[in-house]
Amino acid sequence: MTAVSPRTYLTRATSAIPRRLDGVLLYSVAALSAIGLLLVWAATSGTDNPAASTGHVRRQAVHLVLGAVACLAVAAVDYRLIRAYTSVVYALATVGLILVLTPLGATINGSRSWVVIGGFQAQPGEVAKIALVLGVAMLLGEPRDGEHRPTTRDVLFSLVALAVPLGLILAQPDLGTAMVLGCIYLGMLALSGAPVRWVTGLIGCGIAAAFSVWWFGLLKDYQIARFTSFVDPTADPRGTGYNANQAKIAVGSGGFNGTGLFQGEHTSGRFVPEQHTDFIFTVAGEELGFVGGAVILALLALVVWRVLRIASGCEQPFGRLVCVGVAAWLCFQCFINIGMTLGIMPITGLPLPFVSYGGTATIANLMAIGLVLGIQAREHTYE
Amino acid sequence: MRGMRSPQRRHRRAARAEAAAARRPGRTGLLVTQVLVLTLFATLLVRMWYLQVPMADHFRSLAEASHTQTLIVPATRGQILDAVGRPLVRNRTELVVSADYHALMAQDDGGDAVLRRLAGVLDRPFEELRQRTRLCGPDVPRPCWPGSPYQPISLAEDVDPKVALQIMERREEFPAISAQQQAQREHTRGSAAVQTLGYLSPITAQELEERENLRTQFTGVDQVGRDGLEAAYDEELRGTAGRRRLGVDNMGNVTGVVHESPSQPGMHLVTSLDRRVQDIVEEALARGVKRSRNEGNPADAAAGVVMDVRTGRIVAMASLPTYDPEVWDGGIDQETYDGLLSEKAGEPLISRAVQGQFPPGSTFKVSSLAAAAENGYSLDADYACPSSITVGGRSFQNFEGNAHGTLDLHRAIVVSCNTVFYKLGYDMWRKDGGIKPKGEPEDAMAAMATGFGFGAPTGIDLPHEVPGRIPDREWKREYWEAGREDACARAENGYPEVAKDDPGHADYLKRAAEEFCVDGYAWRAGDAVNFAIGQGDVLVTPLQLARAYAAIANGGTLWEPRVGKGFVSADGKQTREIPPVKAGELPVSDATLDYLRGALTDVPKEGTAQGAFDGFPQDRVSIAGKTGTATLLGRHESAWFASFAPADDPRFAVVVLISQGGTGGAMAAPVARDIYDGIYGFPPKSDGAPPESERGDAPGEADARKPEDEPLAPAIPGGVPPAELPTVRPDGTIVAPEGYAD
User: Fold this and answer.
1) pLDDT at A273 over 50
2) Which residue of B has its CA nearest to A317?
3) Mean pLDDT of A360-383
4) Which residue, A22, A120, A139, B733, is most buried by CB atoms nearer than 10 A?
C-alpha cells in the first residue's frame, strides 16, 4: 500500500474549501478571537486570587479550535446544500429550545438557557440564531414562481418562523437573545424586498421597541433593574445597578492607555461579575484602555461591514439574506453587549461575539462566519 | 462595479428585469444599513471616549476606593520597667478565638451552624457569639464588633489552650474560625502599684476627637492608657500603628497586600520604681494596716512613698486598698467598674499617695519650725511645753496631755510638743494683727508651708494629682463666701436629721453653723494654732510630704517628683532620659535645715519613733523622721511617719500614712522601719511579724526569705538607686545597669 504523505491528505481535505476565502473577514475574526482569548485569560487570572485558573483559557482555546474547524467545514460545503437542510437545523434548534424548558434545562452562570445532556452542555439559543437566519433567508429569499419579491404570505410564514424561537426564548426568559433574534429578523426583512407596508410596519414596531429600551436607558438604574429583572431575572443577580456601575468603573478607570494586560485591579478583584463572558469588554476597557477598546470596536465594525459587503455582492437572494442576517446578528449583539458595558444599554445576558468566553456561542459565531465565507466564495459576482 | 459580469448572467438579468428592480431596494437598503452600522459603532466609540478620557480620573478614584481597604495594625505597646529593668507591666499573650467576618457571612446560614458548634466547645451561649459577630452601628446594640470587618473578630478571650487546640485541629468543623495569640497587658506584681501604673480602657469618642494621633491610627478596638503611667506616657508607650493596604475583591476577600508600612513598637518606659522596694512597701503597708485593725482602728486606707531625695524620683509608691488589675482584661463590666468606684470597696482606683488629702499632723511641724526660725525665733531658746494652752477661750491640749517643762525647738520636735508650736502659731498670728490684721499680714506659717510645696500639685508625672490645702486668711474668706448661705440656713433650721440620733451632736453642729454664718471669714487664733501643728484645715498628700522631707534632707531642693526615668526603644537602639526637674528651693537657711535634720535624726532614737526603731542598726543607717497623729473631726486619728535616711548622707525619703490607723509612732513608724529594713537588708524587728512573702523577682523564684540568722540581701544594692537606664538588647532582652544585676 502506497503511503500517502500528510501533505497530500491536507491537500485533499482542504481541496473542498474554496480557495478564495475573504481574507479581511477571516483575519479580522482571527484577530478578535486571539484578543478574546487573551482577555479571557486576563479575566480569570489574578495574583493571589483563589478563583484564578487557566481552565477557562484552555477551554476557550478548544472552543476556538472547534469553531475554526466548524467554520471552515461550513465554508467548504456549498451553501445551497446547507439551504436544503435548513428545516433540519431549524427543527434541531426548536427541539433544543424546548429542552431548555424541560428538566434537562439548566441554569449555568445565572442564566437558564442551557441544556445539559450527559456532561455536554450547550445553549440552544445560539443555534436558534443560525436557524433563524437560514429559515428566514429561505422563506424570504425564495419567492414562489412568478413572484420576484416576498409576498405577504411569505412574510407571515417568516413571522411564524421568528415567533417559535422567540417565544421559546422569552419563556426562558432570555431578553438579550430575544432582542438579537428580533434584530436579525428586522434586518433581513428590511433588505428582503418584502412589501413596504410590512417592512415599515415591523420596523416601526422594532423602532418602538428599541425606543422603549432607550427610554429605559434614561431611567434610573433601579428602574432599569426592575424592568430587566422583570423580563430577565438573571440579568442583575448581585443587586440593583451593581453590574452597570462596576462595569463603568472598570472601563473608565482604564483611561486612554489602559493599565496593561493582567494589570487591572478591578479585573483581578472580580468586581464585575461574568467578566470573562458577558462583561469581557470591561477587561478590555480597563487593561487595554481606549486604544485597545477602539481596536476591538474597529475590528468588530470591520467584520460587520465586510459581511454587508459580501451581502451586497450576492446575486442570490438567499445568500444575500443569510449575510444580512449574520451582519444584523453580529452588529446588534455587539452593540447591546458593549452598550451595556458602557452603561447606555440595559443589562442583558449576551456574550460579545468572538471575544467572550463560551462554547456554543463561539462555535455558532464562527459557523456563521463560515456560512458567509462559503457564500462569498461561491458568489463569483463578488469582485 | 458590475462590469465584469459574464454575458450569460447579463442575459439572465435582462430577462428578469423585474427581479433587478426587486433587488434594488435591497441594495439601497444595504447602503443604509452600512451607515446604520457605522453610526452604532461610532456611538459606542464616543461613549467609550467619554468614559475613558474626560471621566477617567473620576472612575479611577472610584476603582481605588472599591478595591483596597486600609487596615491599621496596632503597634506593640511598650513595657513598663523598674529602674533595674524588671518588668512591672508587660504584654502577656493569651489565646483568643476569633472569626473572619467575610468568610463567616459567606456561609449559607451566615455561620449559625459553626457558631453553634463553637458555643458548645467554648461553653458560652450561642447568642453571645452571634451578637459579637455583628458589626457595631447606630442600630446595633452591644455586644457587637466595633472594629473593621477586615480584622479578626474576637469571640472569646483567654481561651484554654486545650480548647483552642481542639478548634484548630478540627478546622473543617470550624470554617472561618481561628485561634490566635493576642497581647494582653499583664502586671507582673498583680495588685502592687496599680494606681501608679494605671490601666488601659477603650478609647472614648471624646479622646478620639481631641487626640489626632489616636484618630488617625484608630482601629476601632483600641485601648488607651486611662490612669497612672499608662495614661501619662500613653503617647510613647503606644508607638506608631502600621498601615496595611489590602487589595480586596468584590466579595471582600483579601487578595493580597498592596502596601505595608510596618508598625513602630512603643518604647519601654523605664521608671525609677524598684520592684523589690515596691513589694516591700506593699507588704509593710498591708501588715501595718492589719496591725492597726487588730488594735481596733478602722485603718481604711494607707499610702507609702519612697523617694530618691537627690533627684525627686519615686522609688516606690503604694496605696491601699488596691485591686487586681486583671479586672480590665477583655473589657470591664459595669458592675465591677461601679464596685471599684464605690466607697464600700474603699475606692481602690484612687492613689492615696497622689490623690489622697489628709491633715499632716505633727509631721507638719518641720514647716512651722522653719517659719519660726526664719522669722526671728531662736532655735536654741527655751520654750515652755505645758500640757495645754488656752487661746481665744479655747483650750488646746498637748498630745495625751503630757507636759515637758521647758525645752528648745530641737527637743520640741523630738518629743513632738504641740503647745510649743501652738504658742508660736498664736504669736505670729498676733504679730499679723490677729483677727483684724493691720495692713498686709505676713501669714508666715502659711507662706512657709507654701514654700515647702504644700497647697499645690507637686507636678509628678501622674494624672489627677490633687493640690492639698494650705488655709490662710484669704482662703478662709473664700471658703466662708462659698459656704455662708448654707451655714446660715443651717443656723436657722438646725440639723433635724442628725438630731434624731444624736441631739447633742446636732446642737454642736448648729452652734458651729451659727458661728460660721456670722464671722466664718475670720482667721481666728484657733485657726492659727491648729495650723501650726498641721491640723484644722491643713491638708497634704503623702507625696507632698515626702517631697518636703526630701528637700530638708537634700539641703533645700524641692523636686518635681518623677516616676518615669527614661525610654528605651524595643530594639534598644534609642534611649531618652526623663531628666529630674527642680521645682524650687525651700525658703529656709542652711542653718535651720541643719538644725531640722538634727532634730529629726533624734526622733527615731529617743523621741516619738523610738519604739518603732528599737533595735534598728542606727549606727549603720541613721534614720531621721517625724511622727504625726492627725485628727479630723468625726474621724479616727490618722498615723503618719515622714522620714529620710541615711540621716548623715540622705538618699531616701520615706513617708507612710495609715488613714484612721492610730498614732504615728505606734502604727506608721513601724511600717517605715520595715521599709528601711528591706531597702538596706536588715533583719526585721524580732517581735514584729516576719515578712509575709518572698522578696524575689517572680513568684516561684528561689525562696528569697532567708533564714533569720543569715543577712538578707538589700533590696537596693549599696542603698543607691541606679543612675543608668537598663539596656535592651537587639533581641529584646533587658539587661540591668551594671552592678544591679541579680
Assistant:
1) yes
2) B23
3) 83
4) A139
The C-alpha of B273 sits at a distance from chain A's nearest C-alpha, in angstroms, of 51
Asked whether this complex has an ipTM greater than 0.95, the answer is no
Look up the pTM and report it. 0.67
CA angle, B539 then B543 then B548, to 5°: 85
Domains delineated in chain B: 91-180 (no CATH), 275-336+545-562+579-734 (3.40.710.10), 361-532 (3.40.710)
Q: What separation in angstroms does the CA of B197 have from each of A119, A360, A381, B73, B476?
A: 70, 73, 99, 25, 36
Closest CB to A381 among B5, B27, B55 = B5
**Residues of chain B neighbouring A47 (CB-CB closer than 8 A):** 255-256
A271 vs B47, B58, B67: nearest CB:
B67
Rounded to an integer, what distance in angstroms lies between the CA atom of residue B364 and that of residue B529?
13
Q: Which residues contact B61 (CB under 8 A, 6 or more apart)?
A: none
B659-700 residue pLDDT tens: 999 999 999 999 999 999 999 999 887 554 444 443 444 443
Within an 8 Å CB–CB cutoff, is residue A241 touching chain B?
no
Averaged pLDDT, A207-233: 60
The beta-carbon neighbor of B250 closest among A248, A271, A338 is A271
- A109 touches B at CB < 8 Å: no
Report the mean per-residue pLDDT for chain B. Answer: 86
Q: Is A193 on the interface with B (CB under 8 A)?
A: yes
What is the spatial distance between Cα A158 and Cα A185, in angstroms, rounded to a whole number?
9
User: Which cell is B407 given?
Assistant: 525645752
Q: Any residues with CB less than 8 A from the CB of B577 and at least 6 apart, and which?
A: B565, B566, B725
> Which residues, in sequence order, are CB contacts of A221 under 8 Å at separation 6+?
A240, A241, A244, A245
Q: Which residues contact B335 (CB under 8 A, 6 or more apart)?
A: none
Order of strands across the sheet that contains B314-320: B314-320, B301-308, B652-659, B638-645, B624-630
pLDDT at position B15 is: 46
Asked if A191's CB is within 8 angstroms of B52's CB, the reply is: no
How far B36 CA sits from the closest chain A CA (Å)? 10
- Cross-chain Cβ contact A294/B5 below 8 Å: no
Q: Is residue B256 helix, strand or coil?
A: strand
In the predicted model, is pLDDT for residue A229 greater than 60?
A: no
Closest in A251, A268, A285 to B255, CB measured: A268
Residue of B27, B30, B257 to mutate when probing chain A, most A C-beta within 10 A = B30
The pairs formed by B160-164 with CB atoms below 8 angstroms and a separation of 24 or more are B160/B95, B161/B95, B163/B97, B163/B121, B163/B122, B164/B95, B164/B97
Residue indicated by cell numbers 488656752: B390
Contacts of B169 (CB under 8 A, 6+ apart): none
Distance (Å, whole) CA B481 – CA B458: 28
Which positions in chain A touch B47 (Cβ < 8 Å)? 339, 342-344
Interface of A with B in 325-354 (CB under 8 A): 327, 331, 334-335, 338-339, 342-344
